[in-house]
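[job 4471] stage=fold_predict status=RUNNING
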Amino acid sequence: MTQDEIIEMWNSVIKYARGEVRITEFAKLVAAKEREACAQIADKHTKASFMGAVGAAIRARGEQG
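[job 4471] inference complete, writing structure tokens
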């Protein structure tokens, strides 16, 4: 993730969130972006027999409470 992407995410959060909520929402955005990047790498480098299971498992972590 580039510095520009991080700044863009922060700027999107400060438009609607206040105080501690800003930090929480920003952290969620950063985590989601990194999780997706990891899932894309896994999709690219895992064997076809996995049929995307590794990437799907990484993405599913974002849906856990």
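[job 4471] summary: The mean pLDDT is 84.
[job 4471] exit 0
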